[in-house]
Amino acid sequence: MKSKNVRNFILGLIAGGVALLVAAVFRVVAGGLFVPELASQTLFSLTPGQVESFSVETFGSLAKYSAFTMAIIVNLVLYGGLAVLLHKIYTRLASKGPAVNLLQLSFIPYVVMAAISAFLLQLNELLTGSSEIQYALLFLLLPNVAYGCTLSYLFQRGDNIAKRRRRIDSPHTVASSADTDGKEEKAKGKKSDIPATTAAAAPQPAVPKISRRQFISMAAGTAAAAAVFFLARDFVFHKESSMPLSISKTPMPPLPSNIPPGSIFAQQALAPFVASELTPNDKFYRIDTNVIVPSVDANSWRLNVRGLVKNGPMQFTYDELKAMPSVSEYATLECISDKIDGDLISTAHWKGVPLKSILEKTQVLPEAIYVVFRCYDGYDVGISLDRGLMDGTILAYEMNGTPLPPEHGFPVRAIVPGLYGMMNAKWITDIELVDNIYMGFWQRRGWANNAKYQTHSKIVFPGDALRNRLAEDLSSLNNSVMVGKKSPIAGIAFAGDRGISKVEVSVDGGNTWQTASIKDPLSSNSWVLWALEWIPQNKGKYNIVVRATDKAGNVQTAEIRDNYPNGATGYHSVEENVEA
């Protein structure tokens, strides 16, 4: 009995794999419900901000993909356990015909998965205030029918093989065969010329073989599954480097020529660094709660503006939004989970409609104090009305000269200067004006609601900070540092919309400081590049440290603080070995 349960459990895993494959294809093609994704999304919603901060800091985007993988494994195990139960019902209903058995093999798993999904959907709605999947449970029908059909076939094959083995191994069959042979020999009164051991042995039935038709069907199914996985893998396990071909080959917007002759930034050695001032779309950091990138149809998408507005609610199509007067701007975004030496920061050229243009059309009522963004994936966040009316706050639909990529919020996202990335909502579908301070998705988990950027700086070289975000290969800048040889130190500094007024560098662990050169920034909302010409006089290890001062006079604090809940603080430092 135990071996039979193990066998049925394994068959359930196989059938569950088919069901999940069908569900994954349905999710990618039609935006259907994928239970492991829903489970991992709910887990993210339940995760306290401090735990989420540690996960992002330690594992980066691998954290959510690990949770997603674990959800898939749990789903498969559940299907395996169901198969053990279903086989017992299957044997009792054998006399009722295959149609009845197929119905129960599909219906029972559907009811179980529907109950789990309904619970997760309800919980997710309570946590996020949104349930973006309509008729979600209908999407479970086809995967569970596929599960039932596969399991029925596997049960039938497994039971047939087990029966053959029992007939082969049955001692009664062998004995009966031997007695019959003995009686025939006695009746004829002849001695058998066949050896006794051979005469007593029952004829062995041939091992069942797979027919050519079955082999072709299995091979075609395997090839189809492999092709589907190959085509869908980038949707399910999205990588930052995977971009549509039309986007990845589109030239980057030209950088303004704002380097004066004789500047350290005009040196050929710093050319790759300067060329990386703008981050390519495929290298721009991405942090959100989605395992599968949301896919939004621009033709059916609508931007709804409602709440405390005189002319509302109002609705805008994608084409209507793009037809409105637009603005372009360079802006840096940084995740509040970014470490002092982390790389969750990037700069792009954005194009879109000023948010205040939308708000002027709707005529915001005097009692409104907050603008709430609600998104296609259930995310929500609020910013103050004053921040929403700033000139730099836009609803962007282009990034670096191309339509906004799906992973960065297509069709429309918010760019809100001065506030950490979590306040710059993606996949926006709804804007609501409210009369209270609104606590968004991450704010309800303890993250700062007044999420202004900390004044900070990073050393890009020597070292390896930000290498994943730079457009150019900086390996040429990693040559050995020699005594008496010019060796530039360079990096970035950022303080949001406050700007940077000064950057200082120390090569002796902070005992003495030198003022670095600052390149004119791309905009008042972008990071600045800084560089210092360094000629080491002695060999040995040097502790290089950097600090910045913003234009409001705030000097970067040396106090080391975790990124939760207001963003990390402290000096960035690297060690460099100087050779003789």
The poorly predicted ranges are: 173-178, 183-211, 214-249
Mean pLDDT: 83
Report the count of strand segments. Answer: 19
Major pleated sheet: 5 strands, mixed
Amount of beta strand: 15-25%
Helix and strand content put the structural class at alpha+beta
**Looking across the biggest beta sheet, what order are the strands in?**
2-1-10-5-6
Total of DSSP H or I helical runs spanning 4+ residues: 14
Helix content: 25-40%
Radius of gyration: 33 Å
N-end to C-end Cα span: 75 Å
User: Per the principal axes of the C-alpha atoms, what is the gross shape?
Assistant: globular
Report on the structure:
- This protein is α+β, with helices and mostly antiparallel strands.
- Among the domains are: 2-169, no CATH class; 456-579, Immunoglobulin-like (Sandwich), CATH 2.60.40.
- Helix content is 37%, strand content 18%.
- The protein is built from 14 helices and 19 strands.
- It has helices at residues 2-30, 35-46, 49-59, 62-92, 98-128, 141-169, 171-188, 196-200, 212-236, 245-248, 271-274, 318-323, 355-362, 385-388, and strands at 302-307, 314-317, 327-334, 345-354, 370-375, 380-384, 394-399, 402-403, 413-415, 428-434, 456-461, 481-482, 489-494, 500-506, 514-515, 517-518, 528-532, 540-550, 572-579.
- The strands form 4 sheets. Strands 2-1-10-5-6 form a 5-stranded mixed beta sheet. Strands 3, 4, 7, 8 and 9 form a 5-stranded antiparallel beta sheet that branches.
- A hairpin with a 2-residue loop joins strand 7 (394-399) and strand 8.
- The longest helix is centred in the N-terminal third of the chain and has 31 residues, at 62-92.
- The chain is globular and about 90 Å long.
- The termini are far apart.
- Residues 173-178, 183-211 and 214-249 have low confidence and may be disordered.
